[in-house]
């Protein structure tokens, strides 16, 4: 029960399933991930997608209906939570209100029978790690949200667990604090070299922090890959819309060209990657240019006519909301240096390089994603 | 008996975001934790109740004749009519007195609120008998009311004692807290800016109040009114002490039939009739107020909350009205204090001379000291039993699946919805047969069943307010289940356990109806001794006992309230949710 190997633990999920009622739907549907020691893996998805249930099964709070959870190759799915030896950080901190900061952090050490002197040393170290050395005597109620979450972090790492499980640890904090703590978490991960399994619905947070991201949709892992790959080649329409924003054109691949209405779009030299013909075409807003005068569009660019519906200022960039000819809604991000943006109502030609487009499979009912789940600006 | 109708089961945790639904081993533990309390209630309460219901249909012969005579016998009909009328009057008058008072409680500053809350809580906690005794003193022939209130308006010959009017007046005062607290609890939740908004939208001051505030406060009004009506229907102590056999209410008749005539069939039929009416009224009120209309227990536990912003009470009439209602709540009880220093042998008030005689007698005479010791013994053992069983059951409730929780919760709280006189009858009829009548053990067992719901509510409310993931966090940090309980759950539940224990202790200490039924030589509790000292003899020692109780209870509450309001934390609200009998 003391997995104290240097580096982190290796967690494998094999065909993990969960139903809450015997005949109910699979809330978690054959999830399989192999988390390498020291890796930072994020389970990302909208609420109800099964990511938190998966984490609860790893932690031992929820029994799996079938499948295995392995730590260093050994199936631990029968072990109660306290015998798994993981560190855990919760969304609402879950600090014990009747204990001081110091007692909270010492809690797991006491449970492990660590002697007093050693406890004091390690609690001190853990509090220093999160910059809270001076607050040891306070009670959780006297701390700000950010401080409380730091205490929770210190408490979760104080006994050097091999794996740290984090359940939306930042979503109760405001935006600025969230960014600070993101760096904090990243730093702790780099310093301690533990395995992190992190749950969030915030795609930006996932991309900033993770080595790999598992995108959950309806209980299944829709894709599992490194952030850049997921962003640049989302693979499915769900990933394309959940991770970042996308202009999505529903047309059809015809040999080497993509046909959308009366438009025919070419591909870069190597041609479209292989796959079914009924994929949709995705262009990220920041890759899209807008022209009022078609003659200014670079040769070889693909284009689509659109009407501007709204222009909003965001500091570093401006967002232009578009309605394409067939009624598809989209947007383009223009950097500040770009020439005067068009006015609402103006007709423009949106254009992009064939290198910047990507084909993704058109999954079912992807429109269900809540807009609010995406924390874009 | 109180009837917290709104202890709704907590919303079910969805699979996403919130805590994980209980695991299978948790649900097994839940059943084990619930079992003792459910078992005890089944044996002490549910089965005996069933037995009385059966008896009402079979004793002396099979059939509905016991019920038929309820509605055909002229005497019984008159008693029923008088009871319903009295309950109605008490409810309506109480409503009129309580509404402005409760409203004033929500708008005054913290210190004034502490006083107003104390004024409501003191009678709530003080001995039932002390208050009824005080009314007896005031209403007797030649008493203060006759001489100073009635005589000046030409009614000098009127004696309130022994009349229905007298009974109704004192019942109104005794039950006023049960009317005020649910209203206050509801009114506290009303955002008064809504009234301002209505005002701003063009409604006049009165119209804004009537169209916005009154409808919003209605659930509290309904909860309070139905509670008081049901309590009044089954009320025993006040009519027994202040009324007369000629104007008996139904509880007195049940008492006579069961204890003197041993006619369990007839008494059972009346009891069941009361139960049906009580359940009907409470059911209707619940239908109307919805689940959210917190029960009395919650109302009491939030009393003293210093939330909300103070506003100067501009309306002078509201100030005066509140003061008058406050005096009505407190002053009658205070006459017991001068009474207790009287040198006379009667209940004459004001006393002619002064002495410590009655205090001396309270602590030296064998029957009074025995009663005090019996009461303490019964209350302590009851508190321990009820706290252990109730805490375990509350822990079980938090871990149970939604269905088990709903059923178990309803069952555990069911004694609260049964009129006290019926509980007394039920316990009496069974204990008589198994030889527990006239024993302290019998009283302890019955009191445990009565006190159990209060502990369950206090602990469960506390546990429910606790972050459900704390136990998970502890387990995730390496604490085995026992350690999770000992180091996290129990310390956090402790305030609930403590207030549950206090509630159980006070419920037992002040319980009179059941103890009256079960009394026997060597098994007389203090409230029973007090009751007998008025009903059977004229023993002014009761005034000393009453004074000790009034002072002993009021001072700590007042201090706690003031301290609470100073701290601004407003957590001083532990109240007795036990009711008048």
What is the CATH third-level topology name of chain B? MetI-like fold
**What structural class do the secondary elements of chain B suggest?**
mainly alpha
Regarding quaternary structure, what we see is heterodimer
**What order do the SSEs of chain B take from the amino end to the carboxyl end, as H and E?**
HHHHHHHHHHHHHHHHHHHHHHHHH
Radius of gyration of chain A: 24 Å
Task: Describe this protein's structure.
The complex is a heterodimer of chains A (377) and B (581). By secondary structure, chain A is α+β, with helices and mostly antiparallel strands. Chain A folds into 2 domains: 11-229, Rossmann fold, CATH 3.40.50.300; 237-373, Beta Barrel (OB fold (Dihydrolipoamide Acetyltransferase, E2P)), CATH 2.40.50. Chain A contains 8 helices and 21 strands. Chain A has helices at 51-59, 101-111, 116-129, 145-157, 175-192, 203-209, 227-232, 237-242, and strands spanning 11-18, 28-35, 40-44, 66-71, 74-75, 87-89, 163-167, 195-200, 212-217, 220-225, 247-249, 252-254, 257-260, 263-265, 280-283, 289-291, 302-313, 317-324, 329-335, 347-352, 357-360. In chain A, the strands form 5 sheets. Chain A has a 6-stranded mixed sheet, with helices on both faces. A 5-stranded antiparallel sheet of chain A has the order 16-20-17-18-19, with no helix packed on it. A 4-stranded antiparallel sheet of chain A has the order 2-1-4-5, covered by helices on one side. In chain A, helix 3 (116-129) packs across helix 4. Chain A is elongated, with a radius of gyration of 24 Å. The relative contact order of chain A is 0.12. Mean pLDDT of chain A is 87; it is low at 1-6 and 365-377. Chain B has helices at 24-58, 65-72, 74-107, 110-125, 128-139, 144-150, 164-188, 193-200, 205-233, 237-242, 250-260, 264-289, 296-302, 316-334, 336-340, 357-364, 366-399, 402-413, 420-434, 440-465, 469-476, 481-510, 513-518, 526-535, 541-567. Chain B is globular, with a radius of gyration of 24 Å. Chain B contains 25 helices and no strands. In chain B, 73% of the residues lie in helices and 0% in strands. Chain B has a single domain (24-567), classed as MetI-like fold (Orthogonal Bundle). Chains A and B meet through helix 1 and helix 2 of A and helix 21 and helix 22 of B.
